[in-house]
Design a protein that fits this description.
Blueprint (H helix, E strand, L loop, with lengths): L4 H20 L5 E2 L3 H10 L4 E4 L16 H6 L4 E4 L2 H7 L3 H13 L3 E6 L3 H5 L3 H12 L5 H4 L2 E5 L13 H19 L8 E4 L4 H8 L6 E3 L7 H11 L2
Parallel strand pairs: 1-2, 2-3, 3-4, 4-5, 5-6, 6-7
Helix pairs in contact: 1-2, 1-11, 5-7, 7-9, 10-11
Length: about 240
């Protein structure tokens, strides 16, 4: 919940240079502003990947406060984040609800970033892989291998979101590799084509170490993506 419409528009204007820089290094970038800013960002930079932070699985209906997939498509939005840790922690988002949304997005030929991750209590009790397995299996249930190609999975430990703490590169690699193994178990060889991201206090100074891991294909970045300068440095450090 950052940036007014005008602040987002100003960022989008500056993103043209960011995108040129990223393209020159073969790095794909995108942003996920608030619903109110989606149109402004898309208008200022139509070629930028722009994602919504959530959606509802129904096309319309008595769901006050929700936003439907057709509404997002009308704005030219092709990406949606599903199951972010803050949605799960603060708003009771469940694996089953995420599953409905992922199915709806696939049926609408949309791309999604599906987030999984454990809380600090679960991490300290050694329950990380149990939690991740439930989230992956229940969240992706019923998708076909072809549909799965439209899903990016992001491992974001809840204890590393906005806390300044971050998982070590070894933890990130272990869990991202585990996510891939679960997808392979459930869906087969398509697992090798799925992009898996790490998210959780990713900064310019640590992004390179994360992305050098075999099973970490990208990063879901929070605070460090809000300013053009730090976003530029993230891109530069990925490719160094």
């Amino acid at each position: 919940m950052n940036k007014s419409i005008e602040e987002a528009r100003a960022f989008a204007k500056e993103s043209h240079e960011l995108q040129k820089f990223a393209d020159s290094l073969n790095v794909e970038i995108g942003v996920a502003p608030t619903y109110l800013s989606l149109s402004a960002v898309k208008e200022e930079n139509p070629s930028l990947n722009v994602a919504a932070q959530n959606c509802h699985f129904e096309d319309h209906g008595a769901f006050t406060g929700e936003i439907s997939i057709p509404m997002l498509k009308e704005l030219g939005i092709e990406w949606v984040i599903i199951g972010h840790s803050e949605r799960r922690s603060y708003f009771g988002e469940t694996n089953a609800a995420c599953n409905k949304k992922l199915h709806a997005l696939c049926q609408n030929n949309m791309f999604s970033i599906y987030c999984v991750g454990e809380t600090l209590e679960q991490f300290e009790k050694g329950l990380t892989k149990k939690v991740i397995e439930e989230q992956v299996v229940e969240g992706l249930k019923g998708l076909s291998p072809e549909e799965l190609k439209k899903v990016v999975v992001a491992y974001e430990p809840v204890w590393a979101i906005g806390t300044g703490k971050n998982a070590s590169k070894e933890i990130a690699e272990d869990i991202c590799g585990y996510v891939r193994s679960l997808i392979k178990r459930e869906f087969g060889e398509v697992a090798e084509e799925i992009r898996i991201l790490y998210g959780g206090s990713v900064k310019p100074e640590n992004v390179h170490d994360y992305l050098m891991q075999d099973n970490v294909d990208g990063a879901l970045v929070g605070g460090a993506s809000l300013k053009v300068d730090s976003f530029h440095q993230l891109i530069a450090n990925i490719a160094k």
